[in-house]
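User: structure tokens for Regulator of G-protein signaling 22, please.
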Amino acid sequence: QHVDNKWVSSSSEIIAFRKALLNPVTANEFQHFVSLKGDLLPNGVVFWQEVQKYKDLCHSHCGDAAVQKKITAIIDCFINSAIPPALQIDIPTEQAKKILEHRKELGPYIFREAQMTIFALLFKFWPKFCKFRSKLGSDKILLPLEEKRGPKMRKKEG
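Assistant: Done. Predicted tokens:
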């Protein structure tokens, strides 16, 4: 759909993308696909999935200690990593600071803004991924991605 010179996605496309991120096989293929588009994008896929698991944990009424442990794990991995850069996902530093300030609040919404930012960023690559996947067939998708990624990864390791 085209509205005021901006492309607006249909809700069915957004729902399909959300389902894809929740499907381990499709999410893995998409993660490989976006790894060719930007260094932090694959982390965004995992971050989105981990935040979903965190929200599920909150809604399962498990103990506060488990919820706090998950918050800490997500922050240590993606928001304030010991491995440089500290911010391992593509979100504004203000969002990261806000998460760090509210890390003791145990509700399901601590990562909401960051998750929405990541979702919107990743969603831009969804149509290209769908087109790429439709040309190949799902059983053959990872091979060309690995081949494209190979030289890039060897350069980093070397």
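User: Anything notable?

Assistant: The CA atoms of residues 65 and 106 lie 10 Å apart.
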